[in-house]
Amino acid sequence: MRRLLGVTILALAALLWVGAPEGQTQAQMIPSSATPDPRIPTPCQEAYTTHIPPCVSGASVWSGWTGLAHYWYLQEAAGVRDDAAGANDLTDNNTVTSGAGKNGDAASFAKLNTEYLSSADSAAFYLTGGKTFVFWVYPLDAVDNRAIFAEQSGAGNNYIAYLVAGTNRVDTYTYDTDGVSFSEIQSAAACTAGQWCLVFVWYDPADKKMHIQINNNAPEAAPAALPHGPRETNPPFTIGATGTPGFPHEGLIDEGAVFSVVITSDVRAGIWAAGAGRYYPN
User: Which of 11, 51, 172, 251: CA 20 to 30 A from 150?
Assistant: First the structure.
């Protein structure tokens, strides 16, 4: 009798939980459009229903994400934007909404409302030791200077990357510890209004220069190096405006990543993925 009961329980368990087919992980079984599923552990339900996968213990993580410190899917409709790879969630300032993104939904910024996202000052965003920033950007026009990300405010100016008025080329610079010298580069390629554009910006401690790459174009380096090293004052890290706030964005920003290393050309090519994009953790 006990043996029959045990077999019955096992059979019921098999009906309630169907494992991943051979060659797939549980995470890979999650469809692109999902409703709550009782088979998914409770802590992962939000990830499942919003298409945001922070529960990646059973997933295969691409080796190119090595060194990833922060990753924001920016798919939330409003409010706090979760950091899927670190502990720096983004505060919503002036009601950043959402719109159709490069991958799912994206953060949508309105210049007239000076909408932006921010995280308090942290050594996690300092450039010393090398950093790489990656963002998908969708400008609506080329009327004004539009911030992509920055550490700039009345508390100090560390660095910024922004779309240049009139051209939508991307300019990035960082100040030296002396507060006067800087390393700056403006991209030869531009982000076209009404199209998605992939922006890579990095600081390389090996040459003490800022570098930039737009989509799969050739990377470019600033002509001038910092004489000492990158400035590390205490403004917040912001997306969509500076911390003042200034240079408010008009358009969408999606799939933001910060690496604590200078990523290689192979990794940049992998994230570009022939224009289709590659998204953490895949």
Answer: 51
Cα Rg of the chain, angstroms: 21
Count of residues in the chain: 282
Distance separating alpha carbons of residues 280 and 204, to the nearest angstrom: 23
Residue type present at position 206: A
DSSP H or E stretch at residue 6 = helix 2-16
* Encoded tokens for 17: 């939980």
* Two tokens, residue 273: 């993925």
pLDDT in tens, 89-115: 999 999 999 999 999 999 999 999 999
β-partners of residue 121 are: none
Is residue 130 domain-shared with residue 31, that is, in the same domain? no
> Cα 261 vs. chain centroid, distance in angstroms?
15
pTM above 0.85, yes or no: no
Helix (H) or strand (E) holding 254: strand 251-259
Contact 191, 216 (CB under 8 A): no
* 70 touches 124 (CB < 8 A): yes
Of 218, 215, 200, 190, the C-alpha closest to 275 is: 215
Do both 42 and 69 map to the same domain?
no
Instruction: Tell how far CA 95 is from the center of its chain.
Output: 19
> What type of residue is 189?
A
Q: Which domain range does residue 36 map to?
A: 2-50
Task: Say whether both 132 and 34 belong to one domain.
Answer: no
